[in-house]
Write the structure tokens for this entry.
Amino acid sequence: MFSKILIANRGEIAVRVIHACRELGIATVAVYSKEDRESLHVQLADEAVCIGPKEPKESYLNIKSILAACELTKAEAIHPGCGFLAENSKFAKMSELCGLKFIGPSVKAIKFLGDKIKAKQLVKQIGVPVVLGSEGAIKTKKEAKKVASEIGFPVIIKAKAGGGGKGIRIVNNKEELDSAFSLAQSEAGAYFGDDEIYIEKYIKNPRHVEVQILGDEFLNVLHLGERDCSVQRRNQKLIEETPSPAVDENLRRKLGTAAVKIARACGYYGAGTVEFLLDEKKNFYFMEVNTRVQVEHGITELVSGIDIVKSQIRIASGEKLKTKQKDLNFKGHSIECRINAEIPEKNFLPSPGVIRDVYIPTGNGVRVDHAIYSGYSVLPYYDNMIAKVMVYDATRKEAIAKMESSLAEFIVSGINTNIDFQLKILRNKDFLNGNVDIGFLERLGY
């Protein structure tokens, strides 16, 4: 086992990794930008190193500075968290070249699965359903029009190296295609440094269902059930739950089998998520693999009893998975609400500023992952999610009631948040009945 790990991230995910390391008896190193010096992850870590100015590209995306911090502190491994460099194969490769263990899948797997086109081709070859679309990257608008005409509108344009809802455009007709193509290509280049895009048939009103996987370096792979992430605004998840209200035991078995099959086909180890679209007839289609721990991993931990972050670290240290698929027993229902510093009434305008007072809800079956405190400054340079409220109970109905109670107790003054908006969703009749899809919030005018 490692004696010291550097966490190449910030905010609540960095705090989450610090907690896991403490429980494993591992010392931690935090990295931070100059503006982030008072952040909670900096205060909780055993050591902290400033890696640059406030701009992410000069700090949290600065590979050389992060690797220099490892050398300075004699860290043995790097946990990338989620976001920033978590799915960057170059970062993983440079870490290995510096003699550091990257706590994640292999460089080869990250690079291969980061190419959505190649990943889709592999999945198709092994017999897992994929969405109808282009066989490779689309280079020109003329080619885009040809493919779109062949598969039929509506279509969706996606960045080859995409993630986080970036580089995506839905196109309803040929008149919209030119501008959507340009915007998706431009956004892909800006966010991922790769402007290649591809086209798929747009599935109307699908659910977004993802399967959590864990694999070790000895080719053992298991799945930890599915999460439903259909409550989204502009491709950004707001509420996640497990199990999905749309998935029965038979479909769960099929999804899990498909996810494990994909993982084994590319020699995957570590934590990851295989994402699927589920249509109105309960047919599922492969979307992508996220080669990192997910923001919403905590609700899976609550129903499975498996600590995913500690599992990541143990796998990276060379341990075998001790749990077998047949031994897993998923119990109860868990829901997560993402709390963002924003103003829903003003088109979800970000709301940075200083938190004056905060009260974090507690209670049986309530978990809040966060990095805030009274006097903490929510900075405008980074993601505006400030906390994740997770609840666990025996049934979905009881979990929703517990979430309502928890959000009503969550007090944050000094900035605006989306807590009241989340409560509004929880009380919506369609949500209560489990009748949601990725267009749910858009139909409500959001």
